[in-house]
Amino acid sequence: MLRVTVKKEDLVETWELEGKLSGEWVKELDRWWREFTPQPGVSVQVHLKAVSYIDAAGKQLLTEMHGQGVEIKGCGCMTRAVVDEIVKDSAAR
To answer: Would the pTM count as exceeding 0.85?
Structure first.
């Protein structure tokens, strides 16, 4: 299961993810992301608040989102390591 909670504060929209970012849940988040229309001047952050597992497809989706300007934040050892990889890989390009 994946739970997404959206919070809007000033010029930041935060998506808090909880659960597993794998399989069908990656497809669901991808669909949601592709249908998302950001407001002008509003930045988007994705907090991997309580994500217990990220598969390769989930990491790829986060990488794509990061490449489109989304700030990704990890909140545990595993998620911080994934975020560090994503940021490092994007900086190397």
So the answer is: yes
